[in-house]
Amino acid sequence: MNSPFGRYLLRLLLLPLFLASALPAWAQQTTHSISGRVYDEAGEALPSANVSLLLPDGKLRTGATTAKDGSFVLRGITSGSYTLRVSFVGYKTLTRAVQMGSKDLPLGTLTLEEDGAVLSDVNVVAKANEVVVKGDTLEYNATSYTTQQGAAIIELLKKLPGASVDEKGQVTVNGKTVSQIMVDGKRFFEGDPKVALNNLPAELVDKVQVMDRESESSRMSGFSDGNEETIINLTIKAGKKRGLFGTAFVGGGTDKRYEASAMLNRFTGDNQLTVLGSMNNTNNAGFSDIAQDLSQASFMYSLSGGRRGPGGGGGRMPGQIDGIQTSKVLGGNLSHTFNPYLILGGNLLAGNTTKDKTTASTIQNILSSSSTTQTGKTSEHNDKDTYAGNFRFQWKLDSLTELIISPQLRYGKGIGTYTSDEETLNDATNALISSSSLRQRTSQSQTDGDLRIDASRRLSDRGHTLTLSASGTLSNELGSGTYLSDIVSAATGTEHVDQRIESTKRSGEYRVRLGWVEPLGKGFFGQATYQIKGTNSFSERKAFDADLTGQYTVENARYSNEFHSDFLTHQVGLALKKKGSTYDLTAGVNLERSNLSSYTVVAGVNARSINRSTTNYSPTLRFSYKPKRTTELRIDYFGRSFQPTTDQLAPVQDVTNPLVVYEGNQNLLPGFQHNLFGRYNNFWTSTQTSLALFGHARYVQNDIVSRTTYDLTTGVRKIGYTNVSGNAMVGLGGFFTQVLPGKKFSVRLGSRNQLVRQIAFINDEENRSLSLRLNEDLTLNYRNSFLDINLRGALGYYNATNSLTSVNTTATKDYSVGSNMNLTLPLGFAIEADGTYTTTQGYAAGFENDQWLLNAGISFSFLKGKRATLRLKGYDLLDSRRSIYRNITATSITTEESNTLGRYAMLHFIYRFDSFAGGGSRSDMKQQGHPGPPPPM
């Protein structure tokens, strides 16, 4: 490691040893415990009540939940003044000032009073509250949303107001992407929410809690560093809290469809152990791949030349599937609390996915005075393996000092094939401009390693805090494949390429951030930060022609290239926080100095090197207002500067495709992005009404956009880049739920809307595109002891206008009505059915979509406690499902359709088992209270 980057990384890897030797010197202060019991007014213990110990500034010092006998112990407490807060659903919150001295503090019995207003609602309502607002947490009652027997968590989330699941299994709630799943406050397969979403049975879940979690560095300092993530915490039903439990099912069906899954859990106190495995060919990928789709490997450029272009605001219609996928996964997750000061968590996972996808597409390219239409068909196959492991070591040396070390390692490999046939016509004359065909086979392996360290030391009870956050990442990617293409155009005649491509990519990144928090008095706090961040990347692409024996051994320098880049930034920041009893206001500014250096070699010729330094600033503002536990208003603003990429400054040319020429612009300026987020959540207990509103606005100064020149006669497209101000986006949405009189009916109204403005240049003329996307839905639900049924309707609208008049876009409209029904019958029988009718308008010819989707099934549960279930279900009974995608940008209008699973039927056998500690029964467990949200992690 003689390079500067190697030396930085070596220092980072030695940092844990330094901390391990230095931090114990901080741990000399004596600590004690606070204990007590929580009872109700009748003298009955309240298990699972939340007990929180707050610092004078209102931040959480530590917390716990009461045991079955109502007892709790808070350990590792130093002398000083604190506030103890005890809460439990249906009872008034108890707040008490405590003074910690030089010995343990027993508080005896703490009695909670019933909250009459809440209890009167809870006791008389047959239908539980669907959504409750608890501070900054949205809590969904899982029992209010019926799912089929054996359904995974992801099927439950699809029913939640404000939540959506895209075709890749990515979950968003109120416009924010969910990046982590937790189970009873413990991290579950860190960094890969798909594992929980596609493998945990929905029937285990009592509550679904959605909240924003700060990074470890922000949690330690109390100041946001901009790395907040949205997480979901799943609370397990009281009957599943302790002991050994699990679910297994196996299914076989028509068209050789199959599904099998098994999960074993052991939850004991604060410890959790989960082992799971699954396999299926029904598009249920139970994990996230590290490897990309190898048929579209980045070192094998496509003939369309569109991969590097700016994205648009499109999206596949809800519920559509991307090809047909087979997957297998085996994994384990552990969270073990050795003592209140030492927690170890981690997981291991191995998986395989194969995907087969065929796509028919139509792309209308917008030109200044005319347009072209590109039609094509593609076919791809991928077979990928993924192996991953990560661990989290959390050590609280004392009540003032904390250290977290999180290593991660991922490895992926796979093979893929890709075929494509396309042609482009002049819309005005219908004359052929160009045609192309591509056949490629690829193989690839990728290894990623990551180490993150977070540490903090509180130097006084007033809030003086020193924080350290450091991370390092290494990535290595190797790829090879054969590339066979033919391009016919007026510019080049016929261009034939038959080569073998070998690719190597290496990259590394390190980051160190130091922070100091200073209490200023009267609820004010100040923070100063310094951060250094560096990245290094190298890529090499070698092309080989066939020799006389047909082997690819002759290196072709014209089709080869390499790229080197180093990026270094120094950032200093200042922030001021004011914390009141009902609000929290933070404002700050960061100043950043960055340096970029890179050079490329294309076709054996050294391109001009790039060396540039820039200085940028980025302000931040955060306001949170919580007048009561069930109401929250939050507004966030942050500005972010960004640099031109090396591709935009001096792109590596894809010489295998003479129809696309990239031109760099070394005069590009840094851009600046303004972002404004807002949300309002409220829950009215007396009327059981929930309201959640969210908004996001973005405006970009000096954005980097494409400048395209297209020759209609030759089909050659030149793509360059320029700065422009005015690109913007506004998104508004939310949901409203209301339980109607009689308590058996409820209504849900959801809305997600987005307005996007994009600017691009086509043949030196500016095109301003303004696109509007509306998604509205209304659901009426009825539930009694044996029937759960809903009626829903939805409207989707998508349209765009362009300042260039060469193309007139037609608005697309999607209308749907449908119903879900679950009927419980005597003797263990149950019937489930769901149907949806969808009709569309405005799509390209051949893509109009009128379809009836109908799924239906019958199940029979038997054995003691209905542990076993047989279920027969038919999917897409009318065989009418279609997967259609539409996207509009300032340069093109894209419509495409991919293959789907189609009609099939499946017979499942489902078995549930449990063995509770201490001989407790299900009825015993159900008497426990409902837990609240977990303490902040």
Instruction: Give the overall average pLDDT.
Output: 81
The residue fraction in helices comes out at under 10%
Number of helices: 7
- For this structure, the quaternary state is single chain
The structure class reads: mainly beta
Distance between the termini: 36 Å
**Tally of extended strands?**
49
Spatial extent as radius of gyration: 29 Å
Shape: globular
User: What is the C-level CATH assignment of the domain at 131-238?
Assistant: Mainly Beta
Keywords: Signal
Domain Outer membrane protein beta-barrel: 458-911
Region (Disordered): 436-456
Biased composition (Low complexity): 436-447
Summarize the structure.
This protein is mainly β and 937 residues long. 6% of the residues lie in helices and 62% in strands.
Can you characterise this structure?
There is one protein chain. The protein is mostly beta strands. Among the domains are: about 30-110, Immunoglobulins (Immunoglobulin-like); about 130-240, TonB-dependent receptor, plug domain (Ferric Hydroxamate Uptake Protein, Chain A, domain 1, Beta Complex), CATH 2.170.130. About 5% of the residues lie in helices and about 60% in strands. The chain has seven helices and 49 strands. The strands form four sheets. The chain has a 26-stranded antiparallel β-barrel. The two termini are about 35 Å apart. It comes from Porphyromonas catoniae F0037. It holds the Pfam family CarboxypepD_reg. InterPro entries: CarboxyPept-like_regulatory (IPR008969), OMP_b-brl_3 (IPR041700).
